[in-house]
Write a structure and sequence with these properties.
The complex is a heterodimer of chains A (153) and B (425). With 153 residues, chain A is an alpha+beta fold. Helix content of chain A is 40%, strand content 18%. The termini of chain B are far apart. The chains are: A alpha+beta (153), B alpha/beta (425). Chains A and B meet through helix 2 of A and helix 12 of B.
Chain lengths: 153, 425
């Protein structure tokens, strides 16, 4: 039986209280907005991408603890990675939160492994994934990420 | 030899309407699901505005139909079909009696409240609305009593107007009366708000609308489970409600339509069962309500709904409303006293719904903590995004009550909310 403390691990609660990279980024050159119409969560992800590498990442928005902590940890995790690496990390993260049997070993996800408890709460997968979908849309320069089909919705 | 259908003759467990202290423990035993555990805790089901649980009498009526009475209706000359037809027609009569309709022919079975409202929009609306005509709704409508009017307005060139609500979550009556004009052809209003519990003064609105020559559509999805409904006393022309919120099955709803209007409305869906005669070129239509029930209707669901109405009347709305009012008052008191809780919607007249926020903590997170305690509440916008926008919030938590809820469950809810701060600090 899944427990509340597995969903809300301490790292998640801490990032919810004090999110990293929660700011406007003046020199951002990629930006996308994500919206979960089911719960009203909204997130804006801003990136600075130079030579195919994410130099800086930030977010703003409103949402539950899971989506806020996910955005916070994501921005920290993708900094310094190439677009391809960030997309690959999203794929691993997505496998983790959906409880995919071929989920990557937790150590390859680093701190993102704290989201393993989400898989027991299918409705919260959307919350954890929203910042990532939005980041991907920003990389692809989609103006309307919430218009694009999402496997979680 | 088939025995008499017996499908609608099961007495409600409580027999005659309840007098004296509300026998909530006895009532709870009629609902098998109330005995289950969730996440290792006894289920505390407080999402009755989304859907209600089903008494054994309803489960049995549906099971009995499929086990011993299943056939299509208005078909063959064989006994089983005749029996199913009789049971379906009896269910329609049962609903007519429940709503105070003058005749069963004023009752159309639909898939739910949503389809009932869409029926009025597409059938009455297409026939009567034109460019410049106005439809008046309110800012507290569920999307199901808003989007059908947006669609028909777009299709006909009619103009949609919405009366605002105040900070208590009540309809701004002055503004509503100002928006009503000689151009208003149709007024659509919810009887009880699903997001806030606000009870609207339907009779007052209906009288004013009729004085301007407008027809009145009432969304009764949230009122029919809690208040005795008399469509004639309410003065409405159409009244829609859902079976599954009335302790009956999903997949069935009801549209009451005043006979004079219903008989003149064109069909909105074509198919079997709704015709008088058909040639390859053209067809003529059956009388209402059959005209609006194309295809095989929800027969088992109608029979289950009738059993649910028998069950409700077995307890009686007098006892139900006294108990549910006591539950709501206690909930307002206990939940309102939890630190950081802000109640959303504090209308003077309301029913069975408590919307609230825990300051600084997203409703989904609060909902997850409550879920861990076995408490089922709704967290979200409740398909009423304009209401959320009015209060400047993305979502709320909503506890909604039924007569089988207990004072202890209300206390469990308040205790669970107390735990939210411990988790999120």
């Amino acid at each position: 039986m899944a427990s509340l403390s597995e969903l809300y691990q301490n790292v998640i609660l801490e990032h919810n209280r004090s999110p990293r990279n929660y700011r406007v980024m003046a020199d951002a050159n990629r930006e996308a907005q994500g919206h979960n119409p089911l719960c009203g969560d909204q997130v804006t992800v801003r990136l600075r991408v130079d030579d195919g590498r994410i130099q800086d990442a930030a977010f703003q928005g409103s949402g539950c603890a899971i989506s806020r902590a996910s955005a916070s940890l994501m921005t920290a995790a993708i900094k310094g990675r190439t677009s391809e690496e960030a997309a690959a990390l999203f794929q691993q993260f997505h496998r983790l939160v959906t409880g995919h049997p071929e989920a990557a070993a937790p150590e390859t996800l680093g701190k993102l492994a704290v989201f393993s408890g989400v898989s027991a709460y299918p409705i919260r997968v959307k919350c954890a994934s929203l910042p990532w979908h939005t980041m991907k849309a920003a990389l692809e320069q989609t103006r309307d990420p919430d218009q694009s089909p999402s496997p979680d919705l | 030899m088939l025995k008499g259908s017996g499908l609608l003759e099961q007495p409600a467990s409580s027999g005659s309407p309840v007098r004296g202290p509300f026998p909530v423990e006895a009532v709870r035993r009629d609902f098998p699901i109330l005995g289950i555990t969730v996440r290792g805790r006894p289920l505390v089901y407080l999402d009755n505005a989304a859907t209600s649980q089903k008494p054994q009498a309803v489960i049995d009526a549906i099971g009995r139909f499929y086990a011993t009475g299943n056939a299509n209706i208005h078909r063959g000359v064989y006994a089983l079909s005749e029996q199913a037809t009789v049971a379906y027609d009896q269910a329609r009569s049962r609903v007519a009696r429940f709503l105070g309709a003058a005749s069963p022919s004023e009752i159309v079975f639909t898939r739910g409240t949503t389809e009932a409202i869409n029926l009025v929009a597409q059938s009455w609306g297409r026939a009567h609305l034109g460019a410049g005509d106005e439809i008046l709704v309110t800012a507290m409508e569920h999307h199901s009593n808003l989007i059908p009017w947006q669609l028909i307005a777009e299709q006909t060139g009619a103009v949609l107007r919405a009366a605002p609500i105040n900070q208590q979550g009540e309809l701004d009556l002055e503004a509503w009366h100002r928006l009503l004009s000689d151009r208003t052809r149709l007024v659509a209003v919810t009887h009880v708000s699903n997001a806030l519990g606000t009870l609207n003064p339907i009779r007052e609105l209906a009288d004013a609308a009729h004085a301007r020559g407008a027809v009145v559509v009432v969304d009764g999805a949230q009122s029919a489970p809690h208040l005795p409904i008399d469509v004639v006393a309410l003065g409405c022309d159409f009244f829609a409600c859902s079976g599954h919120k009335l302790y009956g099955p999903t997949g069935i709803g009801v549209l009451y339509g005043r006979a004079e209007l219903l008989q003149r409305m064109p069909p909105w869906q074509g198919g079997g069962g709704m015709i008088a005669s058909v040639t390859l070129e053209r067809s003529t239509w059956a009388e209402a309500p059959a005209r609006f029930e194309a295809g095989t209707p929800p027969i088992a669901e109608a029979i289950g709904l009738a059993a649910a109405l028998d069950y409700i009347d077995g307890i009686g709305f007098e006892a139900i409303s006294v108990w549910e009012d006591a539950l709501l008052r206690r909930a307002v008191e206990l939940v309102g006293a939890v630190p950081s809780v802000r109640l959303i919607g504090t209308a003077a007249h309301r029913a069975a719904v408590l919307s609230f926020l825990v300051e600084g903590i997203h409703p989904h997170d609060v909902g997850a903590v409550l879920d861990d305690e076995g408490i089922a509440v709704r967290a979200g916008h409740h398909c009423a995004q304009p209401v959320m926008r009015h209060f400047g919030i993305p979502a709320t938590l909503r506890a909604s009550f039924a007569f089988y809820n207990t004072m202890e469950e209300v206390e469990t809810l308040a205790r669970g909310l107390g735990r939210v701060r411990e988790v999120f600090g």
